[in-house]
Amino acid sequence: MKNFHKEHIEAVNHFKTEARKAFAHICLNFGFKEADYSLQEYQNPFQIQFESPQIRILAEGIHWGMNANVCIGKNISETEWFNIGYICRQRIPTVPITGSQTEQLYGCAYYLENYAADILNGDYIFLDQLALKRKQEKEEAEKARQTAIEQKLMAGYIPIHNPYGDPILRKPRLNLHSYEIARLKFPQAIPIYPENPSEPGYKAIIDKWFKDIGEHVEETELLCELSTDKVMIEIRSAATGKLVWLLPEGTIAQSDQCIALIAGNL
């Protein structure tokens, strides 16, 4: 039997070793050193920080340590982090940062040295510009979100309480049959379940449908999003056909409960 605890510790150590190698040149040339800090219980163990008197760099493994995420911010308490991917949209590199986790770490370090040396030297001007831009983007996104909500409410959408986040807007659907009636009407239809093999028995609330009753659906096409108290889950179609029934938005579904029916050859 595999010793998963041992493998996890080895993977964390490997990530930190590779990050130290990737950022060694920055530490040498810009006066950074590995930060001494303690993780909180809920934080990602695939994480290491480097700091100078002015700047912090955070490198972490995401998706169970398979990919890398690198952020930079001021060396102050409660700093605002800026992901390298976000910075790349403002200062576009000639070569994108891709590849394995280790290659991503080296790519991010190279990018910082060649496209953000002013930040590494402690110049806050660009970081302040990014902070202002991000604030404006958030305000615009919130304004657009509120406008969309108002439009849906005017169109008859019903607000449903969501225990895991913002209220859910349920689309008005006249004469939506029960599952039992829909099953009798479409006995050959393929049921869609929100089951997650790694977490049996969970409950999820249906946030949003990307397809509606009567629409054609391709196999593996995104059908809807569900939320639990921990994560957002994407549900994709298990077959090609027509969506003939669904469980409406705002409904809490068990992991083994049918949430949609796909009928073929209609």
From TrEMBL:
Domain of life: Bacteria
Span of domain Lipoyl-binding: 204-262
InterPro entries according to UniProt: Biotin_lipoyl, Single_hybrid_motif
Pfam family for this entry, one: Biotin_lipoyl
Protein name according to UniProt: Lipoyl domain-containing protein
Protein's organism: Xanthocytophaga flava
Lineage: Bacteria, Pseudomonadati, Bacteroidota, Cytophagia, Cytophagales
